[in-house]
Write a structure and sequence with these properties.
321 residues, alpha+beta, Phosphorylase Kinase, domain 1, Transferase(Phosphotransferase), domain 1, 2 domains, five-stranded antiparallel sheet, two-stranded antiparallel ribbon, 11 helices, 15% strand, ATP binding, Kinase-like_dom_sf, nucleotide-binding, transferase, kinase
Length: 321
């Protein structure tokens, strides 16, 4: 393990497990992502497992070589032991953003600050030629200084690619991704970011899957976000609503771009402690990767999030669509 000592297992992961360890020299806690392609392959029967692991390693190395970003979880080191890849990261004691919402929606000022940090992290990715393709509450960690760190890049793709594979977590998938159309992964990231903000402000998912057969997505497409909020009797900040309307535009051609998100009035009052230049001619960083979808994970999200205090309002509104 080099300079790291393993203390215990934190959680199981799709391709292995996440371990808690510490640096023998500094005694700092670290999270070690152990990825075993042989075990993962037998568990899911997916021929692209090795590629996804290589993408994860490549993207983390790329960001490290470019100096990193305050809102990207930094990889300290990577190594191979007993045939398994080990990626070493800073340990974030507060866990992921999804867990931070155990009690429902976040206050507007907290949601705004977190969202701004996440958007800056994704902007850094895009500026370096990488689209995330799995932006979600669970893929954002919160460190000791209450700073959001975007993580988990195994499904990332080049910003110059035109993708058609259905990847990511269902609640956050852009309509063009969910419906199996060709898509720009950078624009799809904007939709997913919009869903993250929506969930932070409301405490509930926007829809199960952004397809015409989903009643909530159908309502959004036909009547718009403001009417959706009105039907659910939700009081959402006016500027946040305006930004969400731009991000949660079902038509990707009409959807706003990430630089427009960061320039929006909703974020003007956020104190900027880091910035990133948005590149419109980002390099082709690597080949696209595919995902293994976990249906049970999606249902776990549903069962957990619909326990929101606004459940009595949300469910009848959905049922009436």
């Amino acid at each position: 393990m080099g300079t790291y000592c393993i203390d215990r297992t934190l959680s199981d992961a799709l391709y292995g497990e996440v371990l808690l360890g510490h640096d023998i020299c500094t005694d700092e806690l670290v999270a070690i992502k152990k990825m075993d392609p042989v075990t993962a392959f037998h568990g899911c029967q997916c021929p692209r497992v090795r590629e996804d692991i290589e993408v994860e390693k490549h993207v983390n190395r790329l960001f490290r070589s470019h100096g990193g970003h305050p809102n990207i979880l930094p990889m300290r080191q990577d190594y191979v032991q007993n045939g398994a890849d080990h990626l070493v990261f800073d340990f974030c004691r507060k866990g992921d953003l999804f867990s931070a919402m155990d009690h429902g929606a976040l206050p507007n000022d907290v949601a705004k600050r977190y969202f701004h940090q996440i958007a800056l992290g994704i902007a850094f990715m895009h500026a370096n030629g990488v689209a995330h393709r799995d932006v979600s509450l669970e893929n954002v960690l919160i460190d000791d200084s209450d700073t959001c760190r975007v993580c988990d890049f195994g499904l990332a793709a080049s910003t110059t690619a035109r993708c058609s594979d259905k990847v990511g977590t269902e609640f956050y998938m852009a309509p063009e991704v969910a419906q199996g159309l060709q898509y720009d992964p950078s624009i799809a990231d904007v939709w997913s970011l919009g869903v993250v903000l929506f969930m932070m402000l409301t405490g509930v998912p926007l829809c199960q899957l952004a397809t015409p057969s989903d009643c909530r997505f159908k309502y959004l497409s036909q009547y718009g976000l403001r009417n959706l909020f009105n039907s659910w009797k939700m009081d959402v900040n006016a500027e946040a609503t305006e930004l969400l309307e731009l991000m949660l535009e079902p038509n990707p051609v009409m959807r706003c771009r990430l630089d427009q998100v960061l320039a929006h009035a909703y974020l003007r009052s956020v104190e900027v402690d880091n910035s990133v230049e948005i590149s419109t001619e980002a390099p082709d960083a690597f080949a696209p990767a595919k995902v293994i979808l976990e249906a049970t994970k999606a249902w776990a999200y549903v069962n957990r999030l619909w326990k929101s205090p606004s459940n009595d309002v949300v469910m009848p509104a959905i049922a009436s669509v």
